[in-house]
Amino acid sequence: MPEGPELHLSSLFVNKVCAGRLFAGKVEKSEVNKNPEVPFSCPKYTISAVSRGKEIKLILTPVSAKDKAAHIVVRFGMSGSMKFTAEDEIPKHAHLRFYTKDVPRHVLSFVDPRRFGSWDYNGSWQPERGPCVMTEYEKFRENVLKNLSDKAFDKPICEAMLNQKFFKGIGNYLRAEILFRLQIPPFMQARAVLEALKNQNQNSDLSLSKKIKIKKENPDILQLCHLVPLEVIELGSTVYDYDKSEDYTGFVNWLQCYFVPGMKTMKDSNGRTIWFQGDPGPLAPKGSKSKVKQKRKSADVDNKQPKIEKTTTKRKAGRASSAAVKKEKIEEIETEPVEKTTKKRRGVTAKKVKVDKKIKTEGELVKQTPGRRKTVQEPSSQGSAVKTPAKRGRAKLQVAEDVATPKSRARKPKPELSHPPRNSPKPRQIKSVRKTAPSNSPKVNTKLRRKSAVPNSEDKS
Hints:
Order of helices and strands: HEEEEEEEEEHHHHHHHEEEHHEEEHHH
Helix content: 25-40%
Radius of gyration: 49 Å
Number of domains: 3
Strand order of the largest sheet: 1-3-4-5-9
Strand content: 15-25%
């Protein structure tokens, strides 16, 4: 929220734009704002402003002595500011409007986008707020050192500095800059930090000139509460000025700790973020961890992954990703050299090659040929196969005992086989006989008679 320097700069802005101008008519309030109406209307009056801490007072002075003067105490809240524009360029969130008498008319507006600001007609400074750190430094210092026994100083110094009863005008970025310059841990007890200043003032026998010299060279925390806001006022622009045409480079370069890359951040008990460097202090909230501010990395457009549309579900997205991975694997296999695949196929086919045999039964001849289905010859008229009891719908054939003799069972030397060409098709797998055999022919048990698909070279001759 705007702090003491922002309110002081706003008062200087009002005095600058309203100098030599006359205002007239009624003070208007927006319909959406819940603050009370301003019952002030005058044919001619002037406007001036003065600030105190985080409050600003707009003084309305009539030109005629018959009319009564009035004032409005305004508090900016989280996003308040003062604007001066033409009548046809009134900002969207202008909740208080003061019109000039000249033609074309201009408008002084209190702008508050978030509507946390407030005002009091003919009100006074809030009594619970202490002296201003900028305009009432001596009273401010005395008020702090005399009330060190207050419960507010039992808290960490970073939380005590936001208490407007003692540190009126100090806000979030000011406390970070002040503690950083003195290298004071933000979560150190406030009373322990400020008691040393109280003893120093009581035992000091230095002259006034030496005190001023020490104040400039080695200021303490209360002196920095007065000097640091004055430095911001000298810059003339802050981060809380919502005019987009304003250049903030001077203010950004002035910051040493607040929102600076490399500094640590931690939230206090009130949920406010404190920026610091080094050890947070003994009163840091339990379980909270400090974070380090890092620079923003530039976006790499080329390395960005495609975003999944909102309409797709997680399951569909997972399927799409797995399908993409499978497709990549298939492409890798297809792009492999042909020599590797042929070598593997040669090894597999060489092991499976066996010498084929003719299976003779009574009245039929079954022969296995490579790449073709089994064919069964018609039974001859001389004899028929002896059927055995059917098992699971299949009829078994009884093989003659004199078909295989010990000599015929002896293994013959395997012939040298020539390797098939590289691009030759793989032999088809032999299927069951029952699919191609005639309906009247006896069925053969394929489990016992299955042999290799490659015929013997001697049989071919």
